[in-house]
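re: ur msg from earlier - yeah i can do the biotin complex, just paste it... oh wait u already did. ok heres what im feeding in:
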Amino acid sequence: MKAKILALLRERGEYVSGQELCQRFGVSRTAVWKAIGQLKKEGYHIEAVQNRGYRLVPETEVFGLHELESRMDTGWAGRPVIYYDELASTNLQAKLDAERGAAQGTLIVADMQTAGRGRRGKGWSSPAGTNVYFTLILKPDFDTDLTSMVTLVMGLAVAEGICRTCGVRAEIKWPNDIVVGGKKICGILAEMSVEREFIHYVVIGVGINVGKQEFPPEIAQTATSLWQECGRIVSRSQLIVNVMKAFEDRYGTFCRDGNLAGLMDDYNSLLVNSGREVRVLDPGGEFRGTSRGINEKGELLVEREGGEVTAVYAGEVSVRGMYGYV
Ligand code: BTN
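and the outut:
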């Protein structure tokens, strides 16, 4: 009920009488009063004025379960949300929950991580009160060879979610880093449990730099945050909700087609290295060429000198721009 009261107060933006709240939610005045008291304790500034009712004063963001639930307007992605003030890693928690039977769509969110994981065995800096760390649980029933494409679907959803939330143009550095102004703003780490041809689960972890104002000198040239790019505080909850909405929509298309054909054009239009010269760091030997976008399997097409096109598979290689990170 707290999330519903919160959603109503936010939507109205003005006073809502205690009586209306009681009638809408079929509860007593005492129950409304208690719920308002708890929301205030969580940090919401709610004004109570006699004969007028309650009003939510828009201020600094409160991040937590009720904030997320009150904004979530998806069908299945991000339902339920399980929120933690602190976790070792949302990916680790999601894997435990998936093994214990958590349903597709379950979203694990943390305000901070003590052991955030990045790709290639690296860590992911996860301080409290500033950024976004979440992991979505999927229980797909498609072929195992489609699993690697799910991270590309999430990459597209994050780029779209960022744009929808704060109007900034976010681009994709294939396969799944999201960049703004040529600097990395988000990383995605998918992990899965597969047995023979059966997918037990896929968990997709996303870390987005939202409120971070400064980065250590060694990454300041390659990392950025939404605060740095739009100069204002961006609602972490609304950002998560917008990513979930975009993901639900894009994942539906992907599952229907059984490939990325229906998403390819939009993905390629956001691809930061499209048409640019790239260096492909292939374990079999480094080579150079011009990036021509992805195909329906999510492979990057790289045109070499002489016109031969090589399809590069994300699991095997990494791609660098000729003059830096993108
Ligand atoms: C990368 O190295 O680019 C991927 C970083 C992924 C970080 C996110 S934060 C939420 C989720 N939980 C983790 O431990 N890692 C991912």
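cool cool. The mean pLDDT is 92. ping me if u need the other ligands too
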